Amino acid sequence: MAAVSVPNGEAQLEKKLADVSLGEDKTNATAGTVTSTQSSSVAASLREKPAGPLKTPIVDPVESAVPSPPATLTADQQSKYESLLETVKSWEEVPSTTGKNGPVTENEIMWLSKECLLRYLRATKWHTADAAKRILGTLTWRREYGVEDLTADEISPENETGKQLILGYDIAARPCQYLNPGRQNTEPSPRQVQHLVFMVEQSIQLMVPGQETLALLINFKSSKSRSNTAPGIGQGREVLNILQTHYPERLGRALIINVPWVVWGFFKLITPFIDPLTKEKLKFNDNMRQHVPPQQLWKEFQGDLDFEYDHEVYWPALIKLCEEKHSEQRARWVKAGKHYGESEMYMRGGDAPSVGSAPGKETGDAPDGTLEKGKEAEVPVKE
């Protein structure tokens, strides 16, 4: 991050963020490849560091932090992916538990990226039918839970104390999502779980090209206002079920420190419900500086970063940045042809082409609000 001293930094930042237009298209998707060097107005303003403690999200990982390259698919895995893609493209409706099925929306087609399908295939050990069933189940859950309907204003009261943050990136360029149970400011309610889902969705928006996972950093240190930082068993199981079922292959690392005995008891109770792959990613009381560059690691989590949570500054900055990232990704997806199975690397502005640029490939485009499935009849798609 560039260190630029700005007088009256907070006021200037607020003005810059207020002046940003998220409707602008800053991509060049028609060229087939979009590089990650293109800047955006919200991101550019947040790269300017005001004097004093940092109070806004960090836009970029350190230069040495890069995602691991994706594994090359075997011929069998490629065949299973193509089979799953054809299955997904054949869906005309998303089922509802109340019987009110509805047509597939453009947002859902965009969500059904190549990497998304591969995550579900890996999570089901490459069983195509199981992956399709789980994807359809997640589409139903996302609608009925209202993932896309959660708003920053609705969730804002939950984050007034900074009990969750997205701040910086780990050594593999994963966005770091901090959980601070000692800063809990509300009583148990469905909105607490919605808060976590909302923040996971924002972390996904902030992933750099080539990165599909996030890092959870959890500090169970007690505070003056809260000595017991363990979540309730029921809420813990609900959160675990949501993350494992509907966000497969999204957790890259979970770093957990200051674990009191009561929290150890909580983990022992929920351990039977944690899948083996997730267990391997949990690191208790490790040196966090080995996992996150110290300059991007908050001091409260053993780092060197002087960060101060100010809800009136951080929250609008985070929301504007995530909205801008999403707007840019959607613009690339639309320009490329609204394909099923689009490359997330491409949509995030990485050095990769759209899947639609490969000759002779059926992509299942959705131009002008419709799906094309070979020579079959068009199916209307609502926004």
UniProtKB/TrEMBL annotation:
Q: What is this protein called?
A: CRAL-TRIO domain-containing protein
Task: Give a GO cellular-component term.
Answer: cell periphery
Can you tell which superkingdom this protein's organism belongs to? Eukaryota
Q: Which residues form the CRAL-TRIO domain?
A: 154-309
> Where is composition skewed (Low complexity) in this entry?
29-45
Mind telling me which SUPFAM superfamilies this protein's record contains?
A: CRAL/TRIO domain, CRAL/TRIO N-terminal domain
Q: InterPro entries under this entry?
A: CRAL-TRIO_dom, CRAL-TRIO_dom_sf, CRAL/TRIO_N_dom, CRAL/TRIO_N_dom_sf, PI_Transfer_CRAL-TRIO
The molecular function GO annotations come to: lipid binding; phosphatidylinositol transfer activity
Bias regions of kind Basic and acidic residues — which residues?
A: 17-27, 370-383
Region entry Disordered, spans: 17-75, 346-383
